[in-house]
Amino acid sequence: MSVAPLEGLLATLDLTDTGARTSNDIFTGKSQWQPGGRVFGGQVIAQSLVAAMNTVEEDRVLHSMHGYFLRPGDASKPITFSVARIHDGRSFSARGVQAYQNGEPILSLISSFQTQVTGLEHQMDMPSDIPDPESLPHVREVLAGIEHPIARNWAENRPFDLRFAPSPIFLSVEGERTEHQAVWLKAVGTMPDDPNLHRAALAYASDFSLLEPILRRHGVAWITPGLKVASLDHAMWFHRFARVDEWLLYVQQSPNAIGGRGLSSGRVYTRDGMLVATVAQEGMVRVPNPAEFD
Predict the structure, then answer these.
(1) pLDDT tens digits for 200-243?
(2) Cβ contacts of residue 196 below 8 Å, gap of 6+?
(3) Active site residue 231
(4) Catalytic member of 25, 98, 181, 207
(5) Contact between 172 and 164 (Cβ < 8 Å)
(6) Residue ranges of domains in the chain, CATH in brackets
(7) Backbone phi and psi for residue 175, each to the nearest 5 degrees, phi listed first
């Protein structure tokens, strides 16, 4: 696969510092093209984190973020990021980020950074029954011959290689109607060594498929007529560093869906079983006739 999509992501994460220093730090960034014209949520999260990272000392490492999607973003327009330096303590720093287009916020996010210390340590083990990524088909193979702009974008323009276990739910939901799935992911080329770029890129990729366990549980494929899905919020905890240009396993599950909303959570592991991050997201999930999918 061409590395051009990864180069595009890196360019998107290369924000411009406007030099404005009123009460907040102001950055600007461009948006990636999307076939539907709306900004990809993972993009604006990753950019917001880069903006926040640019305002903290290098020895303070991102460990958590919580964000709310407020309005759809326009992928044809740049985004302005306003960073509030909420707190700088002895060990922790907090930053608030508002992402704006046309003077209105599209995302509100708060992130926390910490100096590195030693302490108690444990983690949940990685599942042992997930097939290796090399044994699973690339999205390009799954969508071969589907001449739809969204399908072509998923197959050719994503900066990450995604391999689904069980099979993807783009066109149909095969097998048991279960509320969990796993996705192997890896950047399509070599990333720079900057750890903050890897963290931001992981946040970007964490938004690709997290709501899919909700759909899988009810047998709803992405091509279902009238299906509407939109992220409402996104939370992420960064436990340990890992490179995103090496295979990572994203284990996902949905504990609940009700009222046109669904909740999903996920855990990200390195191939050798180190827990890298934990993610949670609630989304709007609407189908025309919900009773058909009970």
Answers:
(1) 999 999 999 999 999 999 999 999 999 999 999 999 999 999 99
(2) 50, 53, 62
(3) yes
(4) 207
(5) no
(6) 4-116+131-293 (2.40.160.210)
(7) 80, -160
Burial class (CB in 10 A: 0-12, 13-18, 19+), 239: middle
Among residues 252, 242, 256, 149, the alpha carbon closest in space to that of 209 is found at 252
- The pTM (predicted TM-score) of the whole model is 0.95
**CA–CA gap between residue 215 and residue 14 (Å, rounded):** 34
Tokens of 142: 């799954």
Q: Rounded distance, CA 163 to CA 140, Å?
A: 10
Q: For this structure, is 207 an active site residue?
A: yes
Indicate the helix (H) or strand (E) that contains 101. Answer: strand 92-101
Distance CA 170, CA 272 (A): 29
Instruction: Report how far residue 264's alpha carbon sits from residue 13's, in angstroms, rounded to the nearest whole number.
Output: 26
At 121-158, the pLDDT tens digits run 999 999 999 999 999 998 888 887 777 777 777 777 89
Q: Which of 48, 93, 112, 281 is catalytic?
A: 281
* Catalytic position from the list 31, 101, 112, 231: 231
